[in-house]
Every structure is written in C-alpha cells, then in structure tokens.
Amino acid sequence: MRQQGWQPLYTASANARIVVIGQAPGRRAQSSGVPWDDASGKNLIDWLGVTEEQFRNPNLFSLLPMDFYYPGAGRSGDLPPRKGFADRWHPPLLALMPDIRLTLLIGRYAQMRYLPSARHDTLTDTVRNYRRFMPQQFPLVHPSPLNFRWKTKNPWFATDVLPELRTHVRAALDYTVTRELSTQSGRNPEHPDRECENR
C-alpha cells in the first residue's frame, strides 16, 4: 500500500458518465500506475465497444475498483479486495459524480456490494439476468482471460449481453459527446437553436 510506495489506483471525475466498479488492481496495473493496464483491461475495452482513448478519458469513464491497491497473490489468484474499503471510500467519491448514467459492476465483489439483495445466487445468473438492473446498473463477469472457460460455457454472454452492453455504453456517452461538441460550437445542447448562455 502506501508504505510500499504504491499510489491508490482509481480515476474519478465530476464529469464522468460511466463508472466502472471492478475488483482491485492487478499486479501489472499497480506497477504501471494505470488502471486496467493488463489483458483484462484490453478485453473490457473491447466489450464496451470504445477506444482506449475514450476509456482513459476521465470525463467519460470513472474507474473505481473495490480496493485501490493490489491486494497480493493468493493460492489460486489475487487476494480479494479488503473488507470495508469500498464502504469507506466509494460514497464520498460517487457523491462528486452527479452525471453518472451507467454503473458497470464487474465481478462478484462489486455485485455483492451494490446488489446486496437483488443479485442472484451465482454470478452467472446475475449476469444472465442483467436486464433486471438496467438502465442504471449493468452486472458483468470479470474480463480476465482466465475466464475463457466460463465464456465458452455461456455463449449467450457474447451473443446477447455484449451487444446490449455496447448499446447502453453508447447511449451514456452520446450525450457527453454532443454536449462537448455543442459547447465548442457555442450551442446549448439542451436547446440547440440557442446560443450558449455562458458564451
């Protein structure tokens, strides 16, 4: 953690439209200081249907893991996020993001925290029933390459879930892009035929 010289790994912006709540940084991401800087991140960016530039733009995406530090290695993978960490740090950060239109809940720990009573008994069933939580929340399996067997056993994820995920991501971001372009051109995005009042 800080005593090891590590910096907390997250991004948060008051302008963000989508917040990605994942598990905890991996070893590579912690070393580079860049959230989702690994194969899981590449898969996630592909799932979302965005460019890496868009994904790294804090005015579009806030990246808020359940723990801001690499938790260390366990017997069968990384250790879980520390208990209570998200309870302490997420609420004040999320309170500073009033324009979030979509929350992506990636993996079991994020879903346990944010869908405590609504989630299903298994992660697979929660993801399969993603429509229950829309349009504000979208549960996902972790995009780790180690989950290739899960994706093979659950082909509906690629055929049904990912196309709808991309549609909702585009919808959440389109307003941001329209607003930015309108501001640059001196137009009010809420009233495109009027001059921006703050011009």
Q: How would you describe this structure to a colleague?
A:
Mean pLDDT is 88; it is low at 187-199. The protein has eight helices and eight strands; from the N terminus they run βαααβββαβααβααββ. β7 and β8 form a beta hairpin. The N and C termini lie far apart (45 Å). The chain has a single domain (2-187), classed as 3-Layer(aba) Sandwich (Uracil-DNA Glycosylase, subunit E). Helix content is 40%, strand content 14%. It is globular. It is α/β, with parallel strands linked by helices. The chain has helices at residues 27-32, 39-48, 52-55, 85-94, 108-114, 123-128, 148-153, 156-185; strands spanning 18-21, 61-63, 73-74, 77-78, 102-106, 137-140, 187-188, 191-195. It has a four-stranded parallel β-sheet.
Give me some keywords for this one.
alpha/beta; 199 residues; Uracil-DNA Glycosylase, subunit E; four-stranded parallel beta sheet; two-stranded antiparallel ribbon; single chain
Identify the overall geometry: globular
How many separate helices? 8
Oligomer: single chain
Question: What percent of residues adopt helix (DSSP H or I)?
Answer: 25-40%
Alpha-carbon distance between the two ends = 45 Å
Helix/strand layout:
Elements: E1 18-21, H1 27-32, H2 39-48, H3 52-55, E2 61-63, E3 73-74, E4 77-78, H4 85-94, E5 102-106, H5 108-114, H6 123-128, E6 137-140, H7 148-153, H8 156-185, E7 187-188, E8 191-195
Parallel strand pairs: 1-2, 1-5, 5-6
Antiparallel strand pairs: 3-4, 7-8
